[in-house]
Amino acid sequence: MEKKNLDWANLGFNYQPTDKRYSALWKDGAWQPGGLIDDPFVHISESAGVLQYSQTGFEGLKAYTTEDGRIVCFRPDMNAKRLADTCDRLHMPRIPEEQFIEAVDMLVKANAAWVPPFGSGATLYIRPFIYGSGPVLGVQAAHTYEFRMYCCPVGPYFKGGVKPLTITVSDYDRAAPKGSGHIKAGLNYAMSLYASYEAKGRGFSENMFLDSATHTKVEETGGANFVFVTKEGKLVTPKSSTILPSITRRSLMYVAKEMLGLETEEREVPFSEVPEFVECGLCGTAAVICPVGCIDDHGKEIRFPSGMESFGPVLQKLYDTLTGIQMGRIKGPEGWVHEIIA
Ligand code: PLP
Ligand code: COI
After folding, report:
1. Active-site residue among 184, 200, 231, 239?
2. Where are the domains of the chain?
3. Where does the pLDDT of residue 160 fall: very low under 50, low under 70, confident under 90, or very high at 90 and above?
4. Catalytic residue at 184?
5. CATH of 8-154, one of 3.10.20.310, 3.30.470.10, 3.10.450.50, 1.20.140.10
6. Whole-prediction pTM value?
7. In this predicted model, what pLDDT tens digit does every residue of 234-286 receive, in sequence order?
8. pLDDT for 166-175, tens place per residue?
9. Backbone dihedral angles phi then psi of residue 284, each to the nearest 5 degrees
10. Closest Cα partner for 86 from 76, 73, 95, 74?
């Protein structure tokens, strides 16, 4: 199969329609059989639940070309499970895990020409989502839904690749206690847009959100979880019921402990402790691991000893190991790499 003629090494993180997308409809109380379609547009009621009351949730995962030419993706079962949690909280019908994984397989196979070659620095980003398509007027759940999935080739999420970022502590709240912070609801991202616009306008790459109840504990950014390294080399990540349970972060914590023999800790992280860490990073599917070099706290700078030029040694090792597993160079735990094309 001939690859598309793209400048793979210079792709940004942008939408680009590819040849096929997957669609399945929910109506009369059940998911109908799904399949691939050509049309990149959707046709829904002007009063659709998603348009009026933001009834939508999504996922993000990536497919990779391995060194020996296979196409694989990373832990799609985890995305299927998290999408089911999102559906429950937004009162949408769950998509069964088998159907989710079958859709990933069909989509990637049909768009194999768009999967970036090994070593290009790019990957295929897969975006599954479910939304209320049927009309509502009173505040209520829609009566019909679409489960859809598209994919596009992407480069780094942050401009400049893996150069350490400078981020800022936000005065806005991202998610309320017992709200929707722990699921991947579109509304969480709408809530982060203005805060992100302000932060970027002030020259920062991202916001660090603190817990909305006390504004004293580290939560996450608009699209990634935090990991920190202590002076003793321990990997620490914030524990909170209002952050998204990142699959990348959970995988990193496992890799750190079980494969690299590091001490790990998931616990509340008071913001006051941040200056004591020696490395800081953002992690997520889109972000992979991005080092943070500096945090602006209302005009006061917290600078990590790892500096503004590159990763610190612990996050570098974690980055190499995780991407090595994802790209098939390093053998990871059983079941983490899902083969789509042998
Ligand atoms: N936190 C938020 C708010 C996100 O949107 C994402 C992206 O999915 C993450 C964390 C990272 O999660 P994952 O590693 O599962 O992609
Ligand atoms: C991801 O990492 O998959 C995300 O969804 C983050 C961002 C693009 C919203």
Report:
1. 184
2. 8-154, 165-325
3. confident
4. yes
5. 3.30.470.10
6. 0.97
7. 999 999 999 999 999 999 999 999 999 999 999 999 999 999 999 999 999 99
8. 999 999 999 9
9. 180, 175
10. 95
Q: What is the DSSP letter of 96?
A: P
From CA 134, how far away is CA 154, in angstroms rounded?
Answer: 32
Mutate to test the pocket of ligand 1, among 13, 61, 225 (most ligand atoms within 8 A of CB): 225
**How many angstroms separate the most distant Cα atoms in the chain?**
58
Pocket lining: 284 vs ligand 1, CB cutoff 6 Å: yes
Residue with the nearest Cα to atom 3 of ligand 1? 223
Structure token digits, residue 117 = 């070659």
- How remote is the CA of residue 268 from the centroid of ligand 1, in Å? 18
CA of 191, nearest ligand number? 1
Domain 165-325: give its CATH superfamily.
Answer: D-amino Acid Aminotransferase, subunit A, domain 2 (3.20.10.10)
